[in-house]
Amino acid sequence: MSVQTGILAVVIVAFGALSGLALYEHGYWGIIAFHFPSSAGWQVLTDLVIVCGLAMLWMVQNARATGRTAWPYVLLTLAAGAFGPLLYLLMGSLRGRGASLASVRG
Asked: Among 9, 14, 26, 103, which is least packed by CB within 10 angstroms?
């Protein structure tokens, strides 16, 4: 296992644990609705939408260039945010098929 694969796995597990706790305590809608009452919350949601949108565009372009399928990860990104790009990177790292952190840097 490469260092990159190990880091991605640790991030996914840690973020998964945090997300699981938030889902348990607040539910899926509760995580989102928490941000609605304030402009600070709207800023966080807007930032998440922008970053996830850019990540989805990158995944589609990278998948075309490397012969992979991006759509499952795009759908996961729409439903679960950062888990889509994180798993796309992890699977690319495990398979050695072009989706690496180096390809993100250009």
From this structure: 14
The answer to whether residues 59 and 85 touch, using CB atoms and an 8 Å cutoff, is yes
**Nearest residue to 90 via CA among 81, 101, 106:** 101
CB neighbours (10 Å) of residue 45? 13
Please give the model's pTM, rounded to 2 decimal places.
0.84
Residues 6+ apart with CB under 8 A from 30: none
Q: Are 86 and 12 in contact (CB under 8 A)?
A: yes
Q: Chunk the chain into consecutive blocks of 10 residues (it has 106) and report each block's average pLDDT, rounded to whole numbers.
A: 92 97 95 91 95 98 96 97 97 76 54
- Closest to 22 (Cα-Cα) out of 72, 82, 78, 86: 82
What number of residues does the chain have?
106
The pLDDT assigned to 105 comes to: 54
CA distance 15 to 69: 24
